[in-house]
Design a protein that fits this description.
Elements: E1 6-10, H1 14-25, E2 29-34, E3 47-51, H2 59-65, E4 75-77, E5 82-85, E6 91-92, E7 101-105, H3 113-123, E8 127-130, E9 142-144, E10 153-161, E11 167-171, E12 182-187, E13 190-197, H4 204-218, E14 224-233, E15 247-249, H5 265-280, H6 285-292, H7 294-308, H8 311-322, H9 329-336, H10 340-354
Parallel strand pairs: 1-2, 1-9, 2-8, 5-11, 9-15
Antiparallel strand pairs: 3-7, 4-7, 5-6, 10-13, 10-14, 11-12, 12-13
C-alpha cells in the first residue's frame, strides 16, 4: 500500500472515529491515536441529544449517508414525549411532525455512541492506539480531533437511576441557567439532569441547586445512585479548519459546535466525514466545510447573540409562540439556517463574541469548578 493510503488520526471522539470509519471503508489504512484508554472517558454515562430540527433530512438519514450504523442507543423523542418550562415555571408543550431529537448516551457503556463508533471502526480494521498521544505528525496528511480547549459554556449535572417513565423536560430561565437552559432526560430507568451556563461560571453550584429545586417543583422525581458530572463546550466565531489542507482539524477542536445550544455532535461527525471525503476524493477540506457546515455555524453564533439579549421576558414570549404552532420543526429549521438578516446579525455577533470576558481562573479554595478544570474527568 502506498504512503498516500496511510492516514493518521489524533483523537477517538465522534469526529475522529467518523473519519476513520469512512477512510477504512474506502480502503485506507488508518491509525487513530487516543490519549485515553477508551473512547468517551470525558463523559459519565450522561444522556445527550442529536438534534433533528436543523436539516431537511432526518438525522438518522444523515448518519446513514455518512456511513454510520446505529449500533448504539439512539431513541427518538418527539414533542409528545416532553415539556418545556419558562422563567415562571409556566408549562409549555410543543407539537412536532418528527422526532425533535434522538437521545444518545456518552461514555464507556456498551450502548453509548462512543463505544458504538469504536466498534464500527475496529470491525473495519482501524488500528486504535489507546493511551497514546501524538505530539506531531510527519509530512503526510493527518486528521486532528482532540476535543474542546476552553470553556465557553459549561454544564453541571448528575446521572442517576429513577422510576420515572421516559421523558424530557427543558427549562429556560436565567436564574437557573444563565443565557442557556437546564434539562432532564429519562430513558429506561436512567436519567441525566444538568444546568448549562454561558456566563457567571463562578456561581455554577448556586445555579445547579436552583435548577434542581425547579425540577423537583414540576415533577415528582426519585433520585437513586446519583453521580455528579461537569462538562464544557468550546466554539469559535469562525472554525479553524485547515491552513494547508494537510492537517485537517475536525470536531470541537476546530470549533465545530452549535453556539446557540451546544448541540454539536452532528457537526463534529459531519466534519469528520468531510475530512475523510477530502482525502478519498482529493478535494479541498476547507471548501467542503465552507459549503456544508460554515453557514449553519455562523447562523448559530448569530442566534447566540440574539438569545443572549432576550432575557427572561423574551424567553417567555418565544415559548408562548412555539406552543401555538402545529409543528415547531419548520420554525426551528428556519432559525438554524442562513438568511440575510442572520448574516447581518453575525457581523455583530462575531465582534461581540471576540470581546467577551472569559474568566481564566477562580479563587475557590480546593477548586473543583467545571469551568477551570480544562477537561479533567470528574464526578
Amino acid at each position: 500500500m502506498s504512503k498516500e493510503k496511510y492516514i493518521t488520526i489524533v483523537g477517538a471522539g465522534p469526529a475522529g472515529l467518523t473519519a476513520a470509519i469512512n477512510l477504512a471503508n474506502a480502503g485506507f489504512e488508518t491509525t487513530v491515536y487516543e490519549q485515553n484508554e477508551n473512547a468517551g472517558l470525558r463523559f459519565n454515562g450522561d444522556f445527550q441529544g442529536l438534534e433533528n430540527w436543523s436539516d431537511e433530512e432526518d438525522t438518522l438519514q444523515i448518519l446513514n449517508r455518512i456511513g454510520i450504523k446505529i449500533n448504539f442507543l439512539c431513541h427518538p423523542y418527539s414533542g409528545n414525549d416532553g415539556l418545556f418550562y419558562g422563567p415562571k415555571l409556566e408549562k409549555v408543550k410543543v407539537k412536532t411532525s418528527r422526532p425533535l431529537f434522538y437521545l444518545i448516551e456518552r461514555g464507556s457503556d456498551p450502548n453509548s455512541l462512543d463505544q458504538g463508533l469504536r466498534k464500527q471502526a475496529e470491525e473495519l480494521g482501524v488500528n486504535i492506539l489507546w493511551g497514546k498521544n501524538l505530539e506531531s505528525v510527519d509530512d503526510s496528511k493527518a486528521i486532528v480531533g482532540t476535543g474542546p480547549k476552553a470553556a465557553d459554556a459549561i454544564a453541571k449535572g448528575m446521572v442517576f437511576r429513577t422510576s420515572l417513565d421516559d421523558i424530557f423536560i427543558g427549562f429556560i430561565d436565567d436564574k437557573i441557567a444563565p443565557k442557556a437552559y437546564a434539562y432532564l432526560l429519562v430513558n429506561d430507568g436512567k436519567a441525566t439532569f444538568a444546568t448549562c451556563m454561558f456566563e457567571d461560571f463562578q456561581n455554577e453550584k448556586i445555579y445547579y441547586e436552583r435548577a434542581l429545586r425547579a425540577v423537583n417543583t414540576v415533577i415528582d422525581i426519585d433520585i437513586n445512585e446519583p453521580e455528579e458530572f461537569g462538562g464544557f463546550v468550546n466554539f469559535f466565531n469562525e472554525p479553524k479548519i485547515s491552513k494547508d489542507n494537510r492537517i485537517l482539524y475536525v470536531g470541537e477542536n476546530a470549533g465545530f459546535q452549535d453556539a446557540l445550544w451546544g448541540f454539536g455532535i452532528k457537526y463534529a461527525m459531519l466534519s469528520g466525514y468531510y475530512a475523510a471525503e477530502s482525502i478519498i476524493h482529493n478535494q479541498n477540506y476547507k471548501k467542503l466545510c465552507e459549503i456544508n457546515l460554515l453557514p449553519k455555524l455562523k447562523t448559530s453564533l448569530a442566534n447566540r447573540w440574539l438569545f443572549a439579549h432576550l432575557y427572561n421576558p423574551g424567553y417567555t414570549f418565544i415559548l408562548n409562540k412555539l406552543k401555538t404552532m402545529d409543528d415547531v420543526i419548520p420554525a426551528l429549521k428556519k432559525h438554524y439556517n442562513t438568511s440575510m438578516s442572520k448574516k447581518l446579525v453575525y457581523q455583530i455577533a462575531k465582534h461581540w463574541y471576540k470581546t467577551r470576558l472569559i474568566d481564566k481562573q477562580c479563587m475557590h479554595e480546593n477548586c473543583d469548578c467545571v469551568w477551570c478544570r480544562h477537561g479533567k474527568h470528574a464526578h
